[in-house]
């Protein structure tokens, strides 16, 4: 559309040669990188004089206001907490809702004493940092982190459709139709590709860790065992779940991303057959025997498998990691297998394909609350000031991109930015006063932002660059108003005076 001669006038900053090459690539080999050079040229142009002009505009004041709100402290009172959804390694997972926007999330609570007793500080911090780094449609997003007296909390994408283990073993006959299994495997390929692009190996691919959303799309969750691999290096470590660990992991050999392709083979097999390839569902067998089967035995295939599905599993479950599917070209090689002949990956990555199964919005795809086992009380472990450094590294508040998406999706961004004409928001920096505005009934968010504009642009920008919170003592003194208490509470705890957003 941009290069249609009748529909648009090309930007004069982009050379004619670049335009011609871009048009040609759009016809011959379209892809994500078609506009790369155009983007670079426009970015370089905008970073000069236009950006200097932007910093003097009211839009820059808006930007600083948003960053100020984004950096407000996050506590348990930021959320309403609902039923328990399940258990993690260090604590429960429950549903929660942001009070100010109504957005639902899943809150993964890590008990501080349990972490300390099991020396899980590095694992918890590693999961938090990896989740912050990865922004993928096929991996759960981390939106907030905060702490309470007893817990460290990760606030994540809520997945109301349950996990694949529940669907495989609790709804009808064990396993899925092959079409459904192939669709999930395709989305898993995309998720693993996004992780590997960030040099991250997942290492714990199993049905319990694959969750479904409201529409039936899957996301990878629980990145506690994931690890970042430096460029050109390998790692080792005997970690994972019995029956899903690759032979090279069991043997404690060096590897890069090969264990994840093995895990995809195990998962594909279980989705079709109804049990994992080397251990039947609820089979009583020792760990050593399962490990022996993984290293030595060949998996058995029933009539449930088509030839393509059988070939796909066999190539992923190759014992030698150097000969395994995906070992040479990664996800590109896996996606090219004939089992995915009916999958358009570009449309899949753009969220344009409908899943073969859509969860019932009235159903609850997890165990009843009374059937979820309670954690035992941790005794003999005491928290002290030495733990505070770890807690401060973990509980850092909002994660920018998911938080910004929440503001857009909930309508808060539009509500605030459309509240009055631009000229009424311009700040007179020299006099440190606002232009007069007619007194009209304003929303909670509007009043919050008006309070933020009391900071001068220069001071706010300096605070933003240095990572500081605004100095509220520096705000100009004035006659207290009926909304001053609400202004001090940016997350809507005083709902009776708030806008309709707070009661959504």
UniProtKB/TrEMBL annotation:
One of its GO terms (molecular function) is ATP binding. InterPro entries: AGC-kinase_C (IPR000961), GPCR_kinase (IPR000239), Kinase-like_dom_sf (IPR011009), Prot_kinase_dom (IPR000719), Protein_kinase_ATP_BS (IPR017441), RGS (IPR016137), RGS_sf (IPR036305), RGS_subdomain_2 (IPR044926). Keywords: ATP-binding, Kinase, Nucleotide-binding, Phosphoprotein, Receptor, Serine/threonine-protein kinase, Transferase. This is G protein-coupled receptor kinase. Residues 79-340 form the Protein kinase domain. Residues 469-504 are annotated as: Disordered. Residues 486-496 have a biased composition (Basic and acidic residues). Residues 1-64 form the RGS domain. One of its GO terms (cellular component) is cytoplasm. Its EC number is 2.7.11.-. Transmembrane segments: none annotated. Belongs to the protein kinase superfamily. AGC Ser/Thr protein kinase family. GPRK subfamily. ATP binds at residue 108. The active site is at 204 (proton acceptor). Residues 341-406 form the AGC-kinase C-terminal domain. Gene3D superfamilies: Phosphorylase Kinase, domain 1, Regulator of G-protein Signalling 4, domain 2, Transferase(Phosphotransferase) domain 1.
């Amino acid at each position: 559309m941009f290069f249609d001669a009748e529909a648009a006038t090309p930007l004069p900053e982009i050379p004619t040669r670049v335009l011609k090459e871009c048009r040609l690539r759009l016809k011959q080999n379209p892809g994500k990188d078609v506009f790369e050079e155009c983007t670079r040229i426009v970015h370089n142009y905008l970073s000069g004089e236009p950006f200097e002009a932007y910093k003097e505009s009211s839009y820059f004041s808006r930007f600083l206001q948003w960053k100020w709100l984004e950096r407000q402290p996050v506590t348990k009172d930021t959320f309403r907490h609902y039923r328990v959804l399940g258990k993690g390694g260090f604590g429960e997972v429950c549903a929660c809702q942001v009070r100010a926007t109504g957005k639902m999330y899943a809150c993964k609570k890590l008990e501080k004493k349990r972490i300390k007793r099991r020396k899980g500080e590095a694992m918890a911090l590693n999961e938090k940092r990896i989740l912050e780094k990865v922004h993928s449609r096929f991996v759960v997003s981390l939106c907030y982190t905060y702490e309470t007296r007893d817990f460290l909390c990760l606030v994540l994408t809520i997945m109301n459709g349950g996990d694949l283990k529940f669907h495989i073993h609790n709804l009808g006959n064990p396993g899925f139709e092959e079409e459904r299994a192939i669709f999930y495997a395709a989305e898993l390929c995309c998720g693993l590709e996004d992780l590997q692009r960030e040099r991250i190996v997942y290492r714990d691919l199993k049905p319990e860790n694959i969750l479904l959303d409201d529409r039936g799309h899957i996301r990878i969750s629980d990145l506690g065992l994931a690890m970042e691999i430096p460029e050109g290096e390998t790692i080792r470590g005997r970690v994972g779940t019995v029956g899903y660990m690759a032979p090279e992991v069991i043997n404690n050999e060096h590897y890069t991303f090969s264990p994840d392709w093995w895990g995809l083979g195990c998962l594909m097999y279980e989705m079709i057959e109804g049990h994992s390839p080397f251990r039947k569902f609820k089979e009583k067998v020792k760990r050593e025997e399962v490990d022996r089967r993984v290293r030595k035995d060949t998996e058995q295939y029933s009539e449930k498998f088509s030839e393509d599905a059988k070939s796909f599993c066999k190539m992923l479950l190759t014992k030698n990691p150097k000969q395994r599917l995906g070992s040479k070209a990664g996800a590109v090689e896996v996606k090219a297998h004939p089992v995915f002949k009916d999958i358009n990956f570009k449309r899949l990555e753009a969220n344009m394909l409908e899943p073969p199964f859509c969860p019932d919005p009235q159903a609850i795809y997890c165990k009843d609350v009374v059937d979820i086992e309670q954690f035992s009380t941790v005794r003999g472990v005491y928290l002290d000031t030495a733990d505070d450094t770890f807690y401060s590294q973990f509980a850092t508040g909002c994660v920018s991109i998911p938080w910004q998406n929440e503001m857009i999706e909930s309508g808060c961004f539009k509500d605030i930015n459309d509240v009055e004409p631009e000229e009424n928001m311009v700040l007179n920096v020299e006099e440190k006063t606002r232009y007069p505005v007619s007194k009209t009934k304003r929303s909670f968010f509007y009043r919050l932002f008006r309070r933020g504009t009391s900071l001068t642009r220069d001071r706010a920008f300096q605070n933003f660059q240095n990572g500081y919170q605004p100095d509220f003592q520096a705000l100009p003194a004035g006659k207290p108003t009926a909304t001053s208490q609400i202004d001090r509470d940016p997350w809507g705890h005083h709902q009776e005076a708030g806008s309709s957003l707070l009661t959504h």
